[in-house]
Write a structure and sequence with these properties.
This protein has 163 residues and is of the alpha/beta class. 45% of the residues lie in helices and 21% in strands. The protein contains six helices and five strands. A five-stranded mixed beta sheet has the order 3-2-1-4-5. α2 packs parallel to α3. The longest helix has 28 residues. It is globular, with a radius of gyration of 18 Å. The N and C termini lie far apart (38 Å).
Length: 163
């Protein structure tokens, strides 16, 4: 076995079998990385950087699954803001429209790369989790923001993959 062969074997051994990426899409897109079931990284990316992130992920893991909070699956857009003025409702509608577009882009990129992809409605994902509760649930030791926590929580039930 040559030195090159040894290096290739070592890189294959270190290559995770499963990388589950959780996404909370928006202008500040939260990304969570579960490697073989364990939460290993949280970050914020610009949504247009998703393509590069997905392509790089395909190079680092044997299998990549994507789980994201899919705003298109929730029909009751204004149910929680009945007392809010019209201008506020229109801003929320524009924001959700943008997020819907990012959801479509993420699905298309996953399809192009052969990555399994699953959208979860905001209602199914559940309520936002406070930092202290997040630390307790996941064992994550560092600081987090709500986008990173949402990304981690949407993917958490599927951190060992989905069928």
């Amino acid at each position: 076995m040559t030195a090159t062969d040894s290096a290739n074997v070592a890189s294959e051994i270190a290559r995770p079998r499963l990388l589950v990426l959780g996404f909370d899409l928006g202008v500040k897109t939260g990304v969570a990385r579960y490697v073989d079931g364990k939460l290993l990284a949280l970050e914020i990316v610009k949504p247009w950087a998703m393509r590069d992130l997905l392509e790089a992920s395909c190079q680092t893991a044997e299998r990549v699954d994507v789980v994201f909070e899919d705003s298109r699956l929730q029909s009751k857009l204004f149910s929680a803001i009945k007392t809010t003025g019209e201008a506020k409702r229109l801003k929320i509608a524009r924001d959700v429209g943008g997020i819907d577009a990012w959801c479509t882009l993420l699905e298309e990129e996953c399809k192009r790369l052969g990555i399994r992809c699953l959208g979860i409605s905001p209602a199914e994902k559940g309520a936002k989790v406070a930092a202290s509760a997040f630390d307790h649930i996941t064992g994550w030791p560092g600081r987090t923001n709500e986008h990173e926590r949402d990304a981690a929580m949407v993917a958490r039930p599927f951190r060992k993959g989905f069928h």
